[in-house]
Specification:
eight-stranded mixed sheet; 9 helices; 8 strands
Length: 261
């Protein structure tokens, strides 16, 4: 979210359909000016949650969270209640239960084990109704003012033949040389496949922007650096030194936005 001003200034102003193919929380798509938006991610629990928030008013969501707080006696001290809610979610896969878990989880993270179980530990937090309500209201306002579609699947299934030159593709994939939890299943093969697919996007005359890092904690993404020479590389000034309590030593991270226009 903090990097949005740096990223959005490089986006085209005449976007008909904005396609965010690794959408995560949807933060970028929500803040982009476009006639319509498609938010895609390979995580079904995430997309299911975004669809739920789109289909329910902020008041309905808040009331639902309060009901779960009462049922499980959730508080910053009640780890047992949090764990019981987590057990319930593993059975129900309820998006409301998932959202409530996130509100009380460590660093407000959403993470799953190999069996699909939510495995973020208890965060010792209170439910901040005013902040959550404000975010829900803004989210609902945006997704209600223009066509907003949430899809689940691989970016490779994007129907490029149906897109026009006024559409715009944004890609913020797992970073090959970063150590975030969601990057662990992203390797050299996945990196090469994505870059080859973006070459295909370019060959079809469609516009794209790719967020990534070329250097991080002494590592260098040589595959990305070599590939990026065909396109325009924009420097993004980022500092994640305060984002992870485990980070002890500051080191160079070179974040970039790569565009084909």
């Amino acid at each position: 979210y903090k990097l949005l001003p740096q990223i959005l200034k490089h986006f085209p102003e005449d976007i008909e359909v904005f396609l965010d193919l690794f959408c995560g929380s949807g933060t970028v798509a929500i803040n982009v000016k476009s006639d319509a938006a498609v938010c895609n991610d390979i995580s079904f629990p995430l997309i299911n949650l975004l669809r739920y928030l789109q289909g329910h008013s902020p008041e309905e969501v808040i009331d639902g969270i309060k009901g779960l707080i009462t049922k499980y006696q959730l508080s910053r001290e009640n780890k047992y209640g949090f764990e019981n809610l987590r057990k319930s979610y593993s059975k129900t896969q309820s998006p409301l239960e998932l959202f409530t878990l996130i509100c009380y989880s460590f660093n407000s993270l959403m993470r799953f084990n190999s069996k699909g179980g939510f495995n973020v530990p208890f965060g010792r937090k209170e439910f901040n109704e005013s902040i959550i309500r404000k975010k829900l209201e803004e989210f609902h306002r945006v997704v209600s003012t223009r066509p907003f579609i949430f899809t689940c699947g691989s970016y490779i299934n994007t129907p490029l033949n149906l897109l026009s030159k006024r559409d715009f593709i944004y890609i913020d994939p797992p970073y090959l040389i970063s150590s975030a939890v969601y990057n662990k299943q992203w390797g050299v093969e996945e990196e090469r496949d994505l870059l080859a697919w973006l070459d295909l996007v370019n060959a079809k005359g469609l516009r794209f922007a790719l967020s990534n890092v070329t250097h991080h904690k002494g590592l260098e993404n040589e595959i990305l650096i070599k590939w990026s020479r065909k396109y325009n590389v924009h420097e993004i000034q980022s500092d994640y030194s305060n984002c992870n309590y485990q980070v002890k030593v500051k080191s160079l991270t070179r974040e970039v936005l790569i565009t084909n226009y």
